[in-house]
Amino acid sequence: MSETSRDIILRRIRESLQQPAPQPAAPDFTLPLHPAPHDDLAVTFAESFVRAGGVFYYCVSEEHFYDQLFTYKKEKALDNLYVWEPELKKLLHSGGIGFIGDEADWLQKADAGLTTCEALVARTGSVLVSGASASGRRLSIYPDQHLVLARASQIVPDIGDALKRVQGEYDDKLPSMISLTTGPSRTADIEKTLVLGAHGPRSIVLFLLDDAPEATA
């Protein structure tokens, strides 16, 4: 009696079950989850940062940073730019850039806050800030605009590298707050309508200062 199509299929199933199923290769957990960027980290960061909704300025020198910041303040009519970090205050004094350095009525008046950061993440375009600076937890969150001055040497490939950088900086005395900011604050919780500034600044602006050493002849 010849086999029917059904008999043939059942026989093949039985034969296959008698053979051990091939096992996939064990994953190498030492490899990074995401491959390292192949391009220049500064270029990768800038592309990711802008794609996430950030405003990016590249500054070849401190003088160039002064020009960029002065022009941005004028275009956006930022009369109340708050700066609390001593080094930033000193830098803006040198460039003749006006700012407010105290905390008097700042919640009602702050158009923008300028801070530094701990690291920049190239893959995601994120800015890692902490509560360790004089800007604390507040100046990167409450003002309508968050301005950041960072340096090219602070760019790392991925989030894990940024956290390692913070750990190396502070050892066992980690800041009480570490936060990753990727683009402006946004939410679509209400009727799936995207709203900016619901939980923080409506815009994030980054001035990247090139601090690479000059090439020697």
Automatic annotation (TrEMBL):
SUPFAM superfamilies, alphabetized: NagB/RpiA/CoA transferase-like
InterPro entries to which the protein is assigned, alphabetical: FTHF_cligase-like_sf (IPR024185), LUD_dom (IPR003741), NagB/RpiA_transferase-like (IPR037171)
LUD domain boundaries: 108-208
Name recorded for this polypeptide: LUD domain-containing protein
The species this protein was found in: Hymenobacter nitidus
